[in-house]
Amino acid sequence: MHFLYLFTSITGPDMLRILTLNVYFDSIALTLRMRAIGKCVERLRPGVIGFQEVTSESLAILKKQAWSRYYDCSADCIAPSNNPYFVVLFTALPMLSIETYAFEETRMGRELICMHLRVSETQTLYVGTTHLESLKQNGKIRVKQLQECFTILKRHVDEQAAEKKARSSTSSKQSESRSRCLGAVLMGDTNLFREDAKYLDPNGYSPLVLEPARSNRALCRICNTKINKNELRVGKSHTEERSTREIIHWYHRHCFEERATDTEKINLEQLFQNTISNQEESKVTGKKRSMSSPPSEMIGIPTGWIDCWLCGNSNTEKNGFTFDGRINKLISNPSYQSRFDRMYFYQGASREGSGGTEMIERVEIIGKEPIAENLWMSDHFGLLSTFRFNLEDN
Questions:
Q1: Beta strands of 240-335 (E only): which ranges?
Q2: Residues of the domain holding 177
Q3: What letter does residue 195 receive in the DSSP assignment?
Q4: N or C terminus: which one in the chain shows less Cβ crowding within 10 Å?
Q5: What share of the chain is helix, strand, coil (3-state, %, to 5)?
């Protein structure tokens, strides 16, 4: 019995589970930990798996386990790098192609592995996994690598859409013109720190304020005309060149929107919605307050890409930690918490809708439970996303 049937039997024929996990390169209790990871795969039955920090020894253990016979492994097609550890993809879906991309800038031999997979007779999907540059001081390099990943996968999806459009206008074979790429999934250990946001989008990183003007004395920094009293104005923090003091520059909302980055537009829309709620609140309390932009974990993420974890109604940066020293005793710092491990989805421009969020059924953090006393299957937790694809949608 093919494993593809096994994993669809617990999720449904139109659903696909994708798992990402940093398996931890350390040799501590290696066999026991890899056995626990194998049991996790057998229980969850993901269609695609991205592993990071894989060593030759840990890969050999994983490939000897029963579940692996139902998967194609990227390491069987393209030899892993000569680095102490590397990334691999396992797929139970038919693989159409596989490629590796060494990053333009890396001091640690980091790369992106990408597969083009067949999800159904008429649908395909690109999946990539990576392990971005480690250490806090390498933020610029790490962000550049992430942007490379987004660019590469987006290009693949957009090229497929263009080819499909060309085929549909020239081909007489209906089966060819019906084939469509659903999008791309990027997953792995991003090593992203909160401070990296300033490299992702320097403009979007600056906090915004949206409030009614308190007087008519302020001038818009773009059109240099007065902002009328009680008119909604946008404020953005700037650091003066000759000092470290921050000041707020004020703008007409329409002027600011014309020059805003994608991140700033998203933040501004959130502020506007919050302002409407605030106005309703002020009718009851009689108090007014200005709205500061909420902390945005999507700063710098290109248009069309979504962070799968944040698609959940109750999912936030603070409850999405996949590297948590307060729980996982394999982490030396007992107070350190981060959402290093992430999964992004790009639906492409060929479909209308909510940008792909309706295709994400749920996202779960896995591996939080110890497998023995003070031992976890990795120092990272994994991320499991369930996607729903409409097999009738051509």
A1: 246-252, 291-292, 305-307, 323-324
A2: 3-195+300-388
A3: G
A4: N
A5: 35, 30, 40
Beta bridge partner(s), residue 385: 18, 363
How many domains would you assign to the chain?
A: 2
State what percent of residues in the chain have pLDDT above 90. 62
The pLDDT-based confidence of 269 (bands split at 50, 70, 90) is confident
- Residue 289 binned pLDDT confidence (cut-offs 50, 70, 90): very low
Three-state SS for 180? strand
Token representation of residue 165:
């459009």
Radius of gyration of the chain measured on its C-alpha atoms: 24
Q: pTM here? A: 0.78
At 83-121, the pLDDT tens digits run 999 999 999 999 999 999 999 999 999 999 999 999 999
Domain harbouring 254, CATH code: 3.30.1740
Query: Between the CA of residue 108 and those of 82, 146, 199, 276, 323, what are the distances in Å?
Result: 11, 15, 20, 48, 21
> pLDDT tens-digit profile of 214-255?
999 999 999 999 999 999 999 988 776 665 677 889 999 999
Same domain, 286 and 330: no
269, 292, 315 — which closes off a domain? 292
The whole-number pLDDT of residue 293 equals 45
215 with 338, same domain: the answer is no
| Full strand arrangement of the beta sheet holding 15-22 | 72-73, 86-91, 48-54, 15-22, 382-388, 360-366
Q: Name which of 19-33, 184-198, 294-308 the model is least confident about.
A: 294-308
Of 320, 333, 330, 326, whose CA–CA distance to 372 is shortest?
A: 330
Residue 307, classed as helix, strand or coil, is strand
Euclidean distance between CA atoms 303 and 138, whole angstroms:
25
